[in-house]
Design a protein that fits this description.
By secondary structure, this protein is α+β, with helices and mostly antiparallel strands. The chain folds into 2 domains: 167 residues, Gcn5-related N-acetyltransferase (GNAT) (Aminopeptidase); 180 residues, Gcn5-related N-acetyltransferase (GNAT) (Aminopeptidase), CATH 3.40.630. 34% of the residues lie in helices and 25% in strands. Strands 1, 2, 3, 4, 5, 6, 7, 8, 9, 10, 11, 12, 13 and 14 form a 14-stranded mixed sheet that branches. Strand 9 and strand 10 form a beta hairpin. The longest helix has 20 residues. The protein is globular and about 70 Å long.
Length: 385
C-alpha cells in the first residue's frame, strides 16, 4: 500500500444537537453569544437574568399559550450554535407556523443546517408546515435578523448579528417575510413646527397628555389599561398575539421601576382613558456591554448611571388606539417627549423597529430630521423543502 493510499483527507467532525434540559445546559445556551461576539464592538448582550426568566415557564407568562424547546449545536466538545423552536398557539396555529429564535452560530453552513433541520423536525412533529423567524414568544421579545446597519452600536432592546447570518439562511431556501426599519431622530433645541397644533388637537378631540408625579403613580393608575390599548392597537400587525393580564403584570413589575416619567408620554381622553402612548428609556447599550450583560457585582451601577445621565434615548414601544389614529395624537406625545429631552440633555432618539408596511407609523416624523439606522428582517420557508 502506498503512502498516499494510507493518508485519508481530513473530515471535520459532524454536528451533534443536544436539547437543553438542565440549568447547566441553559447557562451554556444563554452565554454562548458572549463567546461568539467577544471581538465584535457593536454587539450588545442581553441581560443574563432576563434570558433565564424568558425560558422559565414559571416567570414567562407566554408559556400559557406557547411551547418551546432550546437546542445547542456541538462539534466535538465545542458549542458552535444555538436555536430555540417556538410555537405561539394564539398567533401561529392558523398558518401552521413554527418559529425559530435565539439563533446564533459560527460561520459554517453545516452548523446552520443542523440547527434549522432540528427546528423543522420539531415543528413537523407538531403538524407545522412553515418556519418563520427570528421571532420570540411574542412581539415583546427581540425579533428580526439585522440586515443593514452593522456599523452602529446595537440598541439594547434589539438583536444584533454578523452579516453572514442572512446570506446563509438564504442558501437554505429562506426568503424575506417582513422587514422592520429603524431611524434616529435629531432632537433640536427649537421645537418642530408641528407642535403649534397641539392646543388645537387637545381642544378639538378633548384629549391631553398626563403629567404624572411618578412612574409608580402612572403604573398603578393606568398600567393595565395601557397594555390593553397596546393589544388593540397592534392587533392587525404581522404575527401579533395579545398579552395576557399575567404577562402585563410581569412587564409592569419589571419596567415601572426603571422607566422615567420624563420619557413616558401617555395621552388620555375626556374620561381619563388611555388612547396613545410612547415608552422610551435612556440608552443602556454601553452600560450593558461594559458589564457583559450581568447586573452584579457592578453592572447595575453602570445601568443606573446611564439612566440618569445620557444623550441618547431608545424608543421601546408606541401605539395609538385605532379610532384616534387620524387625530394627531403623536403630536402631543412627541411634544411632551421633545420638551423633556431638551431639559435632560438628550439630542438623539433611536426609534424602535417599525414594520416596513406600517405606513401610518412610517409617516409620523415629517418635521424631524431623521437618519436611517438599521433594518431587520424575518425570514420564512417551508418546514420541509
Amino acid at each position: 500500500m502506498t503512502l498516499s493510499a494510507r493518508i485519508q483527507p481530513f473530515k471535520p467532525m459532524s454536528i451533534r444537537i443536544e436539547k437543553v434540559e438542565s440549568h447547566k445546559q441553559l447557562k451554556k445556551f444563554v452565554t454562548f453569544p458572549l463567546h461568539l461576539y467577544k471581538d465584535c464592538p457593536n454587539w450588545v448582550p442581553a441581560l443574563e437574568g432576563d434570558e433565564y426568566d424568558t425560558f422559565n415557564p414559571e416567570k414567562n407568562g407566554a408559556y400559557d399559550f406557547c411551547e418551546a424547546d432550546c437546542f445547542l449545536a456541538y462539534r466535538g466538545d465545542e458549542i458552535v450554535g444555538r436555536v430555540a423552536a417556538i410555537i405561539n398557539h394564539k398567533a401561529d396555529d392558523a398558518e401552521n407556523i413554527v418559529r425559530f429564535g435565539w439563533l446564533d452560530f459560527i460561520e459554517d453552513d453545516e452548523v446552520l443546517r443542523a440547527l434549522i433541520d432540528t427546528v423543522a423536525d420539531w415543528g413537523q412533529q407538531r403538524g407545522r408546515t412553515e418556519m418563520r423567524g427570528p421571532w420570540g414568544f411574542t412581539d415583546m421579545d427581540k425579533e428580526g435578523l439585522l440586515v443593514e446597519g452593522y456599523e452602529h452600536l446595537s440598541p439594547f432592546t434589539c438583536l444584533y448579528n454578523y452579516p453572514y447570518y442572512g446570506e446563509m439562511l438564504e442558501r437554505l431556501g429562506f426568503t424575506k417575510d417582513v422587514d422592520w426599519t429603524q431611524r434616529t431622530l435629531e432632537v433640536s433645541k427649537e421645537l418642530p413646527s408641528m407642535f403649534q397644533f397641539a392646543n388645537l388637537i387637545e381642544e378639538r378631540f378633548k384629549v391631553h397628555v398626563v403629567q404624572p408625579h411618578s412612574m409608580k403613580e402612572m403604573g398603578n393608575r393606568y398600567g393595565r389599561e395601557i397594555f390593553h390599548m397596546y393589544n388593540e392597537a397592534f392587533a392587525p400587525l404581522n404575527g401579533f398575539s395579545p398579552l395576557t393580564d399575567k404577562q402585563i403584570d410581569a412587564y409592569l413589575k419589571t419596567y415601572v421601576p426603571i422607566l422615567d416619567k420624563d420619557f413616558v408620554a401617555l395621552a388620555v381622553d375626556a374620561n381619563d382613558k388611555p388612547i396613545g402612548f410612547i415608552f422610551c428609556v435612556p440608552s443602556l447599550s454601553k452600560a450593558v456591554k461594559k458589564s457583559n450583560g450581568r447586573l452584579f457585582p457592578f453592572g447595575f451601577i453602570n445601568i443606573m448611571k446611564a439612566l440618569k445621565k445620557n444623550d441618547t434615548l431608545e424608543a421601546l414601544i408606541m401605539g395609538v388606539m385605532p379610532e384616534y389614529q387620524q387625530c394627531g395624537i403623536p403630536v402631543l406625545l412627541f411634544k411632551y417627549l421633545h420638551e423633556n429631552c431638551i431639559k435632560r440633555g438628550i439630542d438623539t432618539i433611536i426609534m424602535n423597529p417599525q414594520l416596513e408596511e406600517n405606513y401610518k407609523v412610517q409617516s409620523l416624523f415629517g418635521d424631524y430630521k431623521t437618519t436611517p439606522f438599521m433594518r431587520r428582517r424575518a425570514y420564512k420557508r417551508a418546514v420541509k423543502l
